């Protein structure tokens, strides 16, 4: 059985009876058991997927109504609440937390008869770019297990790339869907801020984070986006998307589309192989009829400092709730004074969360709020204005998803600033709220390179069409694991 | 230039003890020094909007009883009380 089939192929085979849900789920769980010791995509697994599969098969046989996913195996990042399953955020602080409710995106998936394979690994509280900051240990890149899979949705990307599910949900605060998608050679979409509900996504930086779909093809990504997007009464930042179907007209091409090549993301600091792949991708798009020209977004050079100032401030506020009294691990309060107890409990945050908590307390503090936090909010406005101006001239913007190839596990873990700087090509989409997608483009010396398109707010359809056009110019192998 | 005592003070405010974490202080100093790039951004004239929410968009202010299972998440739940460390 080919576990590498797309969502569309899966649905066809289930519908025509050449495949049962039970067969596919059984093989998927076998695959997970086989490769997990090498790649560690999951933190926890669904303990009864086979009975769920049997139930869907039974309904199909009886010609009862079944949701549009027909038992498709999908993994969910472990910072998205799933009722009755652990939701740990890859943190000791939530090691045994069982969510009492489903996130809206999970409710929507379940309503379409998805089978959740399990909860995927991430950098603790989604803070990181390599999945090395997970309390449960790093995930490994299926293209070479000595290398990071990217992050923070590294487990989700690995689970899709290593054929441990058909698609996954990640979350993207500064590139956390797109970066691991690029590093693992899959597709990852960061939707427009507000297109997808954040209800049940454990908060890190509320004003910039979004849940996003990850899959092996652009079409599958569009299929999942159709299900999870739309207004939600539990999240008043959500936007009404209207009657759009993201899977329709994917193949309209890019002829006549004006595509801006972001100078600040394609020049200095970009790895030679990544730069060469970017040039090739642009040439391909021109061959397909797109009009590509350079565009300068001057504020990109301030985006890393802006992003980390805002994200850390919001994180400092959000993570203040982890006092080990309402949520936490086994650590008796007896004999402790209040502050000493919380301080001792918080020593169990990992290094990246600890750094961001301190930064988050410092940058908005009296005496520094003007220098850091308020300044960052102003620069964010400037970035938004530059993006708005750019979309007056262009339909899409393009840059490599990451300026570098995947790096070795442990290579950068002790130099947080060098890791932060690698976010430079992704965070502009979060700061401005626009959608962006990473699509696999090349494999260089056995490691993947992804290309990234940006579109104006709510222009996911244009974004997916461009990604689909570029995807069709490639013929990439699957991960060798 | 940020003083180390100020970083320690900020850490104490959010109850993160740094007694044995010199490494963190050095890393945060380096990150904050990098953040100084914001001074070059010429954004003084920019305004920023804070999100405003009209009262009619807030959820109804009605009592929703806690699910018993939610209470069971508490690690220091004893009988009908939450056991917390002493305040004074």
Model description:
Chain A has a domain of 281 residues: Amidase signature (AS) enzymes. Chain A is 38% helix and 13% strand. Chain A has 16 helices and 11 strands. Chain A has an 11-stranded mixed sheet, sandwiched between helices. In chain A, strand 2, helix 4 and strand 3 form a beta-alpha-beta unit. Chain B starts with a helix and ends in a 6-residue tail after the last strand. In chain B, a hairpin with a 2-residue loop joins strand 1 and strand 2. Chain B has a two-stranded antiparallel sheet with strand order 1-2. Chain B has a domain of 37 residues. The mean pLDDT of chain B is 83. Chains A and B meet through helix 10, helix 11, helix 12, helix 13 and helix 14 of A and helix 1 and helix 2 of B.
Provide the descriptors you would attach to this structure in a database record:
heterodimer; A: 481 residues; alpha/beta; Amidase signature (AS) enzymes; 11-stranded mixed beta sheet; 11 strands; globular; B: 88 residues; mainly alpha; two-stranded antiparallel sheet; 2 strands; 32% helix; flat
Radius of gyration of chain B, in Å, reads 22 Å
Taken as a percent bin, the fraction of beta residues of chain A is 5-15%
Overall residue-averaged pLDDT value of chain B: 83
Biggest sheet strand order of chain B reads 1-2
Number of contiguous helices of chain B = 3
Number of strands of chain B: 2
Net shape of chain A: globular
CATH topology of the domain at 7-250 and 435-471 in chain A: Amidase signature (AS) enzymes
Low-pLDDT residue intervals, each spanning 5 or more residues of chain B? none
The protein's oligomeric status is heterodimer
User: How many strands of chain A?
Assistant: 11
Strand order of the largest sheet of chain A: 1-3-2-4-6-5-10-11-9-7-8
- As a percent range, the share of strand residues of chain B is under 5%
**CATH class type of the domain at 7-250 and 435-471 in chain A:** Alpha Beta
